[in-house]
Amino acid sequence: MKHLLLFAALLLFGCAASRAQNSPAKPMTAAEKQVEALERQRFVAQVSKDYAFLEKAFADDLIYTHSNGKQNNKTEYLQSIRDGKSQYDKIDVETLTVRAYNDGKTAVVNGTILITLPPKDGQPNLAHLKYVVVQVKDKKKGWQVVLWQSQKQTS
């Protein structure tokens, strides 16, 4: 009898999991669409060194944690781009998911990107990263990144 109950429970769980995977994705909210667009624009701005855009996109209290564990605040991170320490030839977005919270005032973004860095010793230099971003909507400044955290993705 115990085995039959366990089998029934596993069967029900399997059906529920299958339904969840096959259910259509919920439509993105306006806030989620805005944040997704801004994420893509920010990557372009990091490559093109559009400091005016980046100044607005990053909150003054930004915590930017690189995939090697090094942390920067907003001033340090922008200076690292100016100094060539954070240099990007291309950033390709592979996956990007946005979830809005707090009545559309906070968003959590996670995804994967492939960064093409300047060649190292004549060899292609790629960084495949998983990342998480938290953006907060300020009444005056709009959406701003308050947190970036990334890690190198392994195959």
From TrEMBL:
<keyword id="KW-0732">Signal</keyword>
<dbReference type="InterPro" id="IPR032710">
    <property type="entry name" value="NTF2-like_dom_sf"/>
</dbReference>
<feature type="domain" description="DUF4440">
    <location>
        <begin position="35"/>
        <end position="145"/>
    </location>
</feature>
<dbReference type="Pfam" id="PF14534">
    <property type="entry name" value="DUF4440"/>
</dbReference>
<feature type="signal peptide">
    <location>
        <begin position="1"/>
        <end position="20"/>
    </location>
</feature>
<dbReference type="InterPro" id="IPR027843">
    <property type="entry name" value="DUF4440"/>
</dbReference>
<protein>
    <recommendedName>
        <fullName>DUF4440 domain-containing protein</fullName>
    </recommendedName>
</protein>
